Amino acid sequence: MGSLFAQISAVVKMNLLSLPKRVGSSLTTLLAVAIVVTVLLAFMAMGQGFQKTMAGSGSEDVAIMLRGGSAAELNSGLGGDVYTNVSSSPGIAKDENGPIISGELYVVVDGVKKSSQTEANLPLRGIGPAGFSLRKNISLIDGRMFEEGKTEIIVGTSILSQFSGFELGSKMKFGATEWTVVGVFDAGGSVFGSELLTDVRTLQAQFNRGNSYQSIRVRLDGPEAIQKIRDFIESDPRLNLDVMTEQAYYSDQSRDMGRLVYMGWGLAIFMALGALAGALNTMYTSVEAKAVEIATLRAIGFKGISAFFGTLVESLVLAIIGGVLGTLIAFLLFDGISTSTMGGSFTQVVFDFNVSADAFKSGIILAVIIGLVGGFFPAWRASRMPLLKAFSS
Amino acid sequence: MSNELLFDLKNIEKRFVRGRESISIFDGLNITIKKGTFVSIMGPSGSGKTTLLNMLGGVDRPTSGEILFEGQAIQNLGEGELAKWRARHVGFIFQFYNLMPMLNAEKNVELPLLLKNLSKAQRNKSVETALKLVGLSDRARHLPKELSGGQQQRVAIARAIVSDPDLLLCDEPTGDLDRTTATEILETLQLLNKEFGKTIVMVTHDPVAASFANVSLHLDKGQFIEQQSSEAVA
Predict the structure, then answer these.
(1) d(CA A285, CA A291)
(2) Closest chain A residue to B100 measured between Cα atoms?
(3) What does the pLDDT average to over B191-202?
(4) Residue B113's domain spans which residues?
(5) In whole angstroms, how far apart are CA A231 and each of A30, A153, A217, B214?
(6) Confidence at residue B230, expressed as pLDDT on a 0 to 100 scale
């Protein structure tokens, strides 16, 4: 066994040392693998970044209620009576002001993207007095909170970074009314940072929505709370509401973007076939270039398996270097870059590309597969190299 | 020279199929080689010199017939067994040296020792001895491209003898060298035969090279038509 290991080590060493002699084809394979991995990671970074933003938005101890059958807030509509009735439900946590509940209205306004100077939909959300504290990891970082009854808004940092005209003190017109930015809040990278917040009563009045809401948020008072609320709603025939935790709601909203990750895998696998062809070509060329050397070693007494592993490792090394290069390119190009896309309620959600450790692992696994498959058949040929080649050199 | 037989080839047939044509190289060849002989084999191209050398080295097999090495038939051994047999008994010396271009002289010489369970220190000692024997101790760290043709062939000889095999098979070992260097190489081979008792079978086109052997055979159309000694070869 020791001898076999020494044989394999020697052939691996020789193959790796001979790589510079085939710099052109080796670099082609390496770059092909790098491109495949970069593309895969770009999709994964986008999908995972969006999912992270959405998943980071939801709390387990906050429930969101929408009209029964509504998939998203934009499709939902709730009367003021529903808000009043549901606020007496068991399961809702209370503080000195009573139940911690926020009736919320959600309207779509226009914003101009800094990157393209094109208009995009932004969510302007009216929240109740408890609305701000119901949101996880949110804090006012500049200016002050909007005042009830005034056309004042506070703006999320994600909006501030991606859209123009929302700086502190700016004035803008939504509908027939002029609004003033009086504060900036940070939401820790969650979807809340992609919203403009204002007083719900003011928003109802300015957009002629009477006493209607689109969603109701409540703080849950324990693990059984959500079931208590469901039971309460079921017992009252006037209430037709879907209730779910905020975490479940946003996880559902990010499902479509999850499919993007699968699309990325599909595209990467398709491209990997091209890289595989390159790897096969490079390795067959390598085996042919070293035919006399391989045959000489076998004539000396080296086993065919040493030539097999030597070739396979060479292929793997090229592919893994390509994979690492691809992940580095993806990391440098994409990680942390901020962009926005249409969310579940036809408004822009700002999120950061996220080249995670998982994505890195996936990229390396893909590279290893390309290296293994691309090296296997040439390695097999190397292990079967006719010894007479050594004498016909 | 010993009276013991190293090789006994009996009724060897070798045919190649090229397209629809079957080409016979040997048809009933018989030859014995005694231990400690330096045999040269000459003959025109296509006479079967290299084919015979390949069969003696276990890298080619006869179509029929028997190759006995120290009484053991080797023609039917499996690939793995043959590889072990070659590692233990045969050292190869090629016309174009067949050194590994990316390894320096001592690493090239060390290669056959990797097939044995030896410590690094034992390997180093054997490599040093082999390189000293061929007069290349001072070139141990040089890559093949940094050596002349004659020096490369010396490294190849050192590689062939480092594991102390019984048999050296040389395929035109001086075919790529000038006369002076060729003579040095042939003197080294002669030394290995006379002083260390190595059996050497050398294929060559060069009558001067053949004269260094103590037995010269002439092969034509698959048969030996002339021999200078009957002591070693029958």
Answers:
(1) 10
(2) A293
(3) 93
(4) 38-58+77-227
(5) 60, 36, 17, 108
(6) 40
